[in-house]
Design goal:
Length: about 425
């Protein structure tokens, strides 16, 4: 399928991209672009994440609004550190821009405009040769605040904290939970075998039918040897998936990843959140290294992720977008899952972050693990007023070494570099 653009008075189609949906161009022009930067910082001095060897002290988000001569406004996720001058787009038609080398937020905002102009939800525009499914299955994604040590706050820690979190999501109606394997391993004396004990206790607590996923070690990759030790354990415990434990370094990893998959035949291997293009994702899909691809529309835009979704369909790979930022990311990712034949699930982040709900007048709220998309034009979302007053932007880095273990971050970076070097050639 392709997007068909027509200039006024011209009945001949212009194929912009044979991999984009067939949508007839309408006359509309961009009159302005606005980027709004926001920050959430816990007022009590707590952390947004306390994961691996680092802490996340605040969370930043940017919103892009694209204005048009018809009064239609498109919304997309911006880049907090990216350029804000988009004057070169003034007078351009959003129909001509999707699928080009637009920054992510502008690509998403143009899709919003196109949907509003055509009077259709974006997910319906994306469903070009299959019926859309507006009932999007989402899984609870968290496990970034439990620690192996007692924080001294009177709350559970260790596996008890992890179990408490999982049971809370189960009570909310989620049927799946993905978690990260705790804070710095060296300081806590953790090994894959000891983490296996955590996995067993968690499985016993949530029951045999609740789906579980295990991700990489926070801000630190697993080694191949560690993966081979944990893989049969989570296989015996019937985990749903193991997520990019060694990262997405490239085809030199394929042989080792296939060996890991052979050690856990009941567990799917998911990955690809760091993919930036179809070209990067294609070999992983065509050789079926990943059973589900997690490319994120918040990172690469809706157009490029739709291309990845099409190849995923052709190769029998599921689409389960990474979604760890804000309701802006949820917005574009759930529409993609609803519209793509390969759409399977979507991540729904559950760490403390008001941007999960505070940005829109009608935020995304899963019911029994499902987000139901309404039949309204575009993404159908309206921004809350006075966001800049409620969440004033605070410049500066948001990641710091965990002050409890100041040497851990350097160790983690060294381990990550070793994993990359193993596959550098």
């Amino acid at each position: 399928m392709h997007m068909t653009n027509k200039t006024p008075g011209d009945d001949s189609p212009l194929t912009v991209d044979p991999q984009l949906p067939n949508i007839v161009r309408e006359p509309i022009k961009i009159t302005g672009v606005k980027t709004t930067r926001l920050t959430y910082k816990p007022s009590d001095g707590s952390y947004v994440h306390e994961c691996g060897p680092v802490v996340l002290t605040k969370y930043d988000v940017a919103i892009v609004e694209v204005f048009t001569d018809q009064g239609i406004i498109g919304i997309g996720p911006g880049d907090v550190n990216g350029p804000t001058d988009h004057s070169h787009l003034l007078g351009k038609n959003p129909f001509d821009l999707v699928g080009t080398s637009l920054p992510t937020g502008l690509d998403v905002a143009c899709w919003d405009i196109i949907g509003r102009v055509k009077g259709k939800p974006v997910y319906q525009l994306l469903a070009v040769d299959n019926p859309p499914n507006p009932q999007v299955h989402v899984y609870a994604s968290g496990g970034v605040l439990w620690t192996y040590y007692d924080k001294g706050d009177g709350k559970p820690y260790g596996v008890d904290a992890l179990i408490e979190e999982a049971l809370r999501y189960k009570a909310m109606g989620f049927d799946a939970f993905k978690w990260r394997p705790g804070t710095d391993w060296e300081e806590a004396g953790i090994t894959p075998a000891r983490l296996g004990d955590v996995c067993r206790k968690l499985r016993e607590a949530v029951g045999p039918d609740f789906k579980l996923g295990l991700e990489k070690k926070g801000y630190d990759s697993w080694t191949f040897e560690q993966c081979m030790e944990i893989a049969p354990i989570i296989n015996d415990l019937n985990f749903l998936f193991f997520e990019q434990p060694m990262g997405d370094e490239g085809p030199t990893q394929f042989e080792d990843y296939l060996r890991i998959k052979a050690a856990m035949p009941r567990v799917m291997l998911w990955g690809g959140e760091r993919f930036h293009s179809l070209a990067e994702a294609r070999p992983w899909l065509e050789q079926r290294i990943y059973d589900a691809v997690q490319s994120d529309s918040f990172i690469i835009g809706l157009s490029e992720n739709w291309r990845i979704a099409r190849v995923a369909t052709a190769t029998g790979v599921k689409l389960v977008p990474h979604n760890w930022s804000s309701s802006l990311g949820t917005m574009c990712n759930v529409h993609l899952v609803a519209g793509a034949r390969s759409g399977h699930m979507c991540e729904f982040f559950m760490y403390p972050n008001p941007f999960r709900e505070a940005l829109f007048t009608e935020p995304y709220r899963p019911v029994n693990g499902v987000i139901t998309l309404p039949d309204v034009p575009g993404f159908g979302k309206t921004l809350m007023p006075d966001l800049e007053k409620q969440f004033p932007y605070i410049p500066g880095s948001n990641v710091a070494a965990n002050p409890r273990f100041p040497r851990a971050w350097a160790r983690a970076q060294a381990r990550e570099a070793q994993v990359r070097m193993r596959y550098a050639g």
